[in-house]
Design brief:
Number of domains: 4
Strand order of the largest sheet: 1-2-6-5-3-4-7
CATH topology of the largest domain: Alpha-D-Glucose-1,6-Bisphosphate, Chain A, domain 3
Radius of gyration: 22 Å
Strand content: 15-25%
Length: 444
């Protein structure tokens, strides 16, 4: 099933997306950004060259000058658009989806993703008639400046003597991650480091990362770091070989900023842990919530002129003076530097974080039923937050977020509380409520 959202377009190659589709998307995007300079990069999937070449042909047919970065990460394309003040950028990737998938992400002027209303406009252009005359553009193959920019931003040799095991998962990070961390001063080992060989799950937040954990243990490394195929998601293994929850990426960096007296107001998605608010409160900072989704977080950051934001559920950290996107490589480099500066282990930092338990589940549900469920629960629960679905806040530092998927016939349920028992009980209670509302709809 072809999926379209503010995160881009994704689907199975040959079934949901073809070369013709990529050419048409390239043409439409070229018109959307009024031609000019457009960067493009791809991840390491076998369909990447075909998809990239087709998209480039579409861009060229509308007069774009294409900055072809080759195999690179999603954040590097965002960075190239920013540093060159380009008209736009395209990333050929399906991110953490399976290898048979591919997709495309959009970057617009200002080096940000599409907002919802902009995506709607671009989608309309896919189906509109073509009246523009053919224009011949040209290609400028270019090496990405992103790795050097990471080292410059974090500081060469700022992570001196830290032993790091990197797991690029066969993705784009294979080509540059070891060099970046070596220039940061780390002693570097790798697993799953062959481009295009996907020997573990594409999504590091879901995979058990067994090979990485074993390598951390066998080498007595300080940290292990795993990325998805386009290196915007990241997950850590600490020095005790424990896989950390994806939201710890955001929490560790916020705690470091707080302890250093550098923390200011933050934007996070509606499904991000309350631990963020606990950390912010100690620094006298405000937490602003957005709808779920990287682009929604980024939009609020721009509106509020805020420096740091993120999404806990996807290992997401956005640092706006470097990139207006979730950046797994930047996040891991910053946290490596923080470990060195604090002179403590990653496990020790994690033990000092506020403790919460989160469960995230989904139930099959047609969109019309999802809307009915949310409407019914809104009426039953009383005072609720309806910014994104329905969020029910409890008095005991617990919450339940129920929202319809924008891309699938499912309803998503996220629950957080201070104890594992309460979290589980709340999840079961609201799944039962949803099932009851669904059954009542079938009977009527």
């Amino acid at each position: 099933m072809r999926v379209t959202s503010i995160s881009g377009i994704r689907g199975v190659i040959g079934t949901d997306l073809t070369a013709n589709d990529y050419a048409e998307i390239g043409r439409s995007f070229a018109e959307y950004i009024d031609g000019g300079l457009c960067a493009i990069g791809r991840d390491t999937r076998s369909s990447g060259s075909m998809a990239s070449n087709a998209a480039i042909s579409g861009l060229l047919s509308r007069g774009c000058t294409v900055i072809d970065l080759g195999v690179t990460s999603t954040p590097s394309v965002f960075r190239e658009v920013l540093r060159g003040n380009l008209n736009g950028g395209l990333v050929i990737t399906a991110s953490h989806n399976p290898p048979e998938w591919n997709g495309i992400k959009f970057v617009v002027k200002g080096a940000r993703g599409l907002f919802e209303e902009e995506l709607n406009r671009l989608q309309r252009m896919f189906f509109s008639s073509r009246t523009q005359l053919f224009k011949a553009g040209n290609i400028l193959p270019t090496e990405s400046h992103y790795p050097a920019d990471i080292v410059s931003y974090v500081g060469a040799n700022s992570c001196s003597k830290l032993k790091v095991v990197l797991d690029p998962g066969g993705g784009a990070g294979c080509l540059f991650l070891p060099n970046v961390f070596q220039e940061l001063g780390c002693r570097v080992l790798t697993v799953n480091g062959t481009p295009g060989i996907f020997s573990r799950g594409m999504d590091p937040t879901k995979d058990d990362l067994r090979a990485l954990s074993e390598k951390v243990k066998d080498s007595s490394a300080d940290i292990g770091v795993a990325y998805d195929c386009d290196a915007d998601r990241v997950v850590f293994i600490d020095n005790e070989c424990t896989k950390l929850r994806s939201d710890y990426v955001l929490l560790i960096y916020l705690k470091y900023l707080s302890d250093s007296g550098l923390l200011k107001n933050i934007v996070v998605s509606a499904d991000t842990t309350l631990a963020v608010e606990d950390i912010a409160e100690k620094s006298g900072c405000k937490v602003i919530r957005s709808k779920v989704g990287e682009a929604n977080v980024m939009q609020r950051m721009i509106e509020e002129k805020i420096f740091v934001g993120g999404e806990g559920s996807s290992g997401g950290l956005i640092v706006s003076d470097f990139n207006f996107c979730r950046d797994g490589v930047l996040a891991s480099a910053l946290i490596a530097s923080a470990i060195v500066n604090l002179k403590v282990s990653l496990a020790s930092i994690v033990k000092g974080l506020p403790k919460y338990f989160i469960l995230r589940e989904k139930m099959n549900c047609r969109k019309e039923d999802a809307y009915r469920i949310i409407k019914t629960l809104s009426e039953e629960e009383g005072d609720v937050d309806t910014m994104d679905g329905i969020k029910i806040m409890m008095t005991n530092r617990s919450w339940i977020l129920i929202r319809s998927s924008n891309t699938e016939n499912i309803i998503r349920i996220s629950v957080e509380s201070k104890t594992e028992k309460t979290t589980s009980e709340l999840m079961n209670r609201y799944k039962d409520k949803i099932s009851k509302i669904l059954n009542e709809g079938i009977k009527s």
